[in-house]
Amino acid sequence: MAEKESSERILNTYRDEIRTKSRKSYSIWQKNRTVMPAGVGSLFRLADPFPMVIKRAKGARVWDADDNEYLDCMLGFSTMILGNAPDEVEAAIREALPRGTHYGQCHEHEYAFAKLFCDMVPGVDKVTFCNSGTEATMYALRLARATTGRPLIAKFEGGYHGTHDLLAVSFGRPRPGPDLSGPVEDPATVPESPGLAEGAWKDTIVLPFNHPASFDKIQRHADRLAGVIIEPVQGAAGTIPASKEFLSELRRITHEIGALLIFDEVITGFRMAPGGAQEFFGVIPDVSTYGKVAGGGLPFGAIGGTSEAMHLMEYDVDLEHSILMAGTFNGNPLTVAAGTAVLHRLSNDQQLHTQMDAMGERFRNEINLFAREENFPAIATGVGSMFSVHAVHGPVNSVRDLRAGNRVVSTGLGLLYRKNGLHITPSHGFMSAAHTDEDITRLIEIYKNAMEELRAQGMW
After folding, report:
1. CA–CA dist 252, 274 (Å, integer)
2. Sequence-ordered list of residues with C-beta below 8 angstroms from that of 167, at least 6 positions apart, any chain
3. Is the pLDDT reported for residue 174 higher than 80?
4. Distant-in-sequence, close-in-space partners of 262: CB < 8 Å, separation ≥ 6
5. Residue 189, Cβ neighbours under 10 Å: how many?
6. Are 267 and 295 in contact (CB under 8 A)?
7. For the whole model, what pTM was predicted?
C-alpha cells in the first residue's frame, strides 16, 4: 500500500507540472465541460490529467492553447501522413473552396480521387466514399452479409473497427469488473459499451489474433460466416502486426468457405505502402475500408474492393438486391480535394514511405536496444512508420501479451512524454513526411529519459 501511495504521489507531481504549464488549456477544457459531456467530442480525446487543447499545428509540431510546442507523433490519430497543414493540401482546399463547400450531388472531381484508389491499391477495382472509418466498416459488413446470405461476422480480439454495435466488442484491453474475455484460443464476445443491441453483437464471433486456433474456429462456423474483418496491424491494441503467414492462411481459408475477407485499412491504408497493408504483405482481400490518411485531414471514409465483391453496390444495375448505402456528405468536394492532393503526393513520391519507414525502424531498434542493455521490461512494437512502446517483456503477438504490463509505469511514461513536449496517444504513434532525423533523435531521448526518470523514482 505504501509503495502504491508513493507512486501516486510521484504521478500527481507530474500532473501538477502539466497543469502549471497548460493553465489556459485546462481552463478551456473546464469551460467546454459546461456545454459538452466530459468536455470532449470523442472519448479518445480524454487524457491524464486533462485533454490536450490544440491551438494550431504545422509540420511535425502542434502548439497547445498556452503556446507550448510539442513534437507531434499523434498526427490526428495517424491521419496527417504529410505532416500538419501541408502546403499542397492547403492549396487544394483553397482552390476548391470558391466552387462551394457542399453539393449533395456528384461532381467531376470524384473521378480523379477514386481513380487514385483503384490505381494504387491492388485489391480495389471500385471504391465508394462515406464519412468515417466506422461507417466504412459498417457498410463492409452489410455488403458481406448481403453477398453471402449468411448472418455471422468474425473479428479478432484487440481489433478496433469503430463504434457501431456490430464490432464494438472485445477490444482486449483490461477493464473494470470481472474478466469475461475467455480462453486465449477461443475469446468470448465482450461488449465494450452499455447500450449495444444484443442482436447485433451476438452475431459477431471473436478470433485470437496471430493464433492458429483462429482457423479452427472459422471452420466451425463456416456455413454461417459472411465475412472476416481484420486490421493487418492492430492499431489501438498497441501497433501489433499480423504475420504475413497468418494473413495468407486467412486469405486461403476465407476463400475456401466462401466468406469475404475484409481488411480494415483505416490506419494502414496508404501508410504502410502506397497500396497499404495489402501491398506490403502481398495478401489481397475482397473488400477494404479506409479513413484517416486518404481524407487529407477532413472527415472521410471509403469502401473499396474487387469488382465481384462490390457488385451489390451497383444500384443502377440491380436496385432490388443492392445494399443500402447513402450519406449527405459522401464525396464532399473539400474532402475530395484534400484527399486527392495527399494520394497524388503518395503515388508520385517514391522516397516518402522509404524515409518514414526508416525513421520508424530506427526508433524501434534504438528503444529495444536500450531496454535490453538497461534491463527495462519494455518493448517497442510496430512496423514501418507506426510504433508503440509497452511496459512488458516481449514478444508481443496479441493484446493478451500486454496484460502483464505495469499500468502505473505506463501512466507515468505517458505523463512524462507530455510534460517533456511529446504529443502522442497512449496506444500508438506515427512518423510523417514532415519528421526529420533530428526529430527522431529527440523522440528517442524523450522515451529514454522517461524510462530513466521512473527508475530513478523507484517506480520501475
Report:
1. 24
2. 137, 138, 141, 153, 155, 159, 161, 204, 229
3. no
4. 137, 140, 141, 144, 227, 228, 229, 230, 285, 286, 287, 288, 289
5. 17
6. no
7. 0.96
- Dist. CA 198–CA 201, nearest whole Å: 6
Extents of the domains making up the chain: 87-348
Which of these, 302, 296, 229, lies nearest to 263 by C-alpha position? 229
Q: What are phi and psi of 319, to 5 degrees?
A: -60, -35
Catalytic residue annotation: 160, 264, 292
Distance CA(70)–CA(418), nearest Å, equals 8
Residue 262 predicted with pLDDT over 80:
yes
Would you say the C-alpha torsion 278, 131, 138, 160 has a positive or negative sign?
Answer: positive
Q: In this structure, are residues 412 and 447 in contact, taking their beta carbons and an 8 Å threshold?
A: no
- Does 112 have pLDDT greater than 90? yes
CATH number of 87-348: 3.40.640.10
Tens digit of each residue's pLDDT (9 = 90 or more) over 48-57: 999 999 999 9
**Tens digits of per-residue pLDDT, 124-155?**
999 999 999 999 999 999 999 999 999 999 99
Positive/negative CA dihedral, 22, 24, 28, 33:
positive
For the stretch 309-342, pLDDT in tens is 999 999 888 888 899 999 999 999 999 999 999 9
From the CB of residue 40, how many other CB atoms can be counted at a distance below 10 Å? 16
In this structure, is the dihedral angle defined by the CA atoms of residues 417, 421, 426 and 431, taken in order, positive or negative? negative
Distance in angstroms (rounded) separating the CA atoms of residues 264 and 162: 10
pLDDT at 212 over 70: yes
Residue that has been written with the C-alpha cell 507540472 in this structure:
17
Pairing of strands 287-290, 61-64: unpaired
Mean pLDDT of 66-81: 99
CA distance 95 to 113: 16
